[in-house]
Amino acid sequence: MRFTNSVVGLVLTMTMVACGESEKEDTAVEVAPEFLALTAALESQCTGCHGTSGDLSLAAADVVAETVDVESSGDATYMRVVCGDPDSSALYLKLFDPAPFFDPMPKNGTADQETIDAIYAWIDAGCPE
Asked: Is residue 10 situated within a structural domain?
């Protein structure tokens, strides 16, 4: 009888532990696909000059704070990013020649279409993270 009680106790304990494990909250943070595409595009085309130093960091950890609702340093009539409005966002407009102010970006050539599309889609979607 003692052996049976021990086995039953062990089974109950294992069941409770197993149930407890499956009921834990998923703490993984979901990242918006537009943000993933944006950060990949910025990494490939922009962070060589606009990394984590200087007056504008486009590194993934900084891009929202550095761009959303921040006045453009090139022309204070423009915001770097106006969520939902790429055509009013300096980050997007600077990809074209002629840019509305100063030189278009990137300085070493033309942004590829994938980068242009990723920046547009992120801004147009409301700047999801």
From this structure: no
Helices 33-45 + 113-124 axis angle, to 10? 140
Three-state secondary-structure class, residue 67: helix
Q: Are 111 and 45 a contacting pair, CB within 8 Å?
A: yes
SS3 string, 5-41, reads: HHHHHHHHHHHHHHHHHHCCCCCCCCCCHHHHHHHHH
pLDDT tens figures, 54-71: 688 999 999 999 999 999
Domain of residue 72: give its range.
33-124
- The reply to whether 9 falls in a domain is no
The pTM of this model reads 0.76
Q: Per the structure, how many domains does the chain have?
A: 1
Residue 95 lies in a domain: yes
Q: What is the pLDDT of residues 79-127, one digit of tens each?
A: 999 999 999 999 999 999 888 888 899 987 889 999 999 999 999 999 9
- DSSP assignment of 75-111, as one string? -TTSBSB-TT-GGGBHHHHTTSSS-SSS--S-TTS--
Q: Is residue 51 part of a domain?
A: yes
